[in-house]
Each structure stands twice: as structure tokens, then as C-alpha cells.
Design a protein that fits this description.
With about 120 residues, the chain is an all-alpha fold. It is about 85% helix and about 0% strand. Among the domains are: about 50-85, no CATH class; about 90-115, no CATH class. The protein has helices spanning about 1-30, 35-50, 50-65, 70-85, 90-100, 105-120.
Length: about 120
């Protein structure tokens, strides 16, 4: 009987932190505004509708983000927030600059297209 009592007490002590975590997330959910809850629900529905390859890609992106050092994440988040707060015209200018820097030259574009066409199965 003493063994069973000790076992139950040990089991209770092991599950105590889990109940605290559950309570914390429950409290956090109830403190959210209806708008925040609606956003979470909409994102969840979008996630459910994604094809498996897209889900895998997003998981990889999330893992890459999580593996960055905290200070690097903070700097990237600050840059993102500052760009989001720009007026639409200025934001568009920054996007154009980015696209120009990352655009392929005509030769590189042709080479990539040829490489892709070589690997494509021929139609009959």
C-alpha cells in the first residue's frame, strides 16, 4: 500500500508542471482580444488547407528562423517592422531595389531555362 501511495505522489508531482503549462496557455487564450483569436483561427484553417510540401517548406523556414541567434532575429524583426511602417510608395521603392539586386542577368536566365528544359521529360 505504501508503494502505491509513493507511486501516486510521484506521479502527481511529475504531472504538476504540465497542469501549470496547460493553465498558462488557457489563461493566455482568454486574455486575447476577439480579433487576435480570429487571426489565430484563420491561420490555423489556412495551415490545414496547405499541401504537405508547403507545410514542410514552412517547417524548414521556421527551423531556420529558430536556429538564428536571438540578436540576429531581433535585428531582422526590427528591419521588418520598420519597412512595414513606411508609406506605400517608399515601400514599393525598396521592393523594386531588392528585385533589381536579385534579378538574373539575361545570360543567367537563359542558362537556367536551358538547364531546366534539359531535365524536363520529353512529351510525346
Amino acid at each position: 500500500m505504501k508503494r502505491i501511495a509513493k507511486f501516486l505522489i510521484l506521479l502527481f508531482l511529475l504531472f504538476l508542471p504540465l497542469s501549470g503549462l496547460a493553465q498558462e496557455s488557457y489563461d493566455r487564450w482568454h486574455r486575447m482580444s476577439p480579433r487576435e483569436k480570429e487571426d489565430i483561427w484563420r491561420n490555423y484553417q489556412r495551415w490545414q488547407k496547405l499541401p504537405p510540401k508547403e507545410k514542410e517548406h514552412l517547417r524548414e523556414e521556421w527551423n531556420r528562423w529558430q536556429s538564428l541567434p536571438q540578436d540576429r532575429r531581433d535585428r531582422l524583426r526590427e528591419r521588418f517592422d520598420s519597412l512595414r511602417q513606411l508609406p506605400p510608395q517608399e515601400r514599393r521603392e525598396w521592393q523594386d531595389k531588392f528585385e533589381q539586386r536579385h534579378r538574373l542577368s539575361p545570360e543567367d536566365e537563359r542558362e537556367l531555362r536551358n538547364r531546366l528544359n534539359r531535365n524536363r521529360p520529353k512529351r510525346r
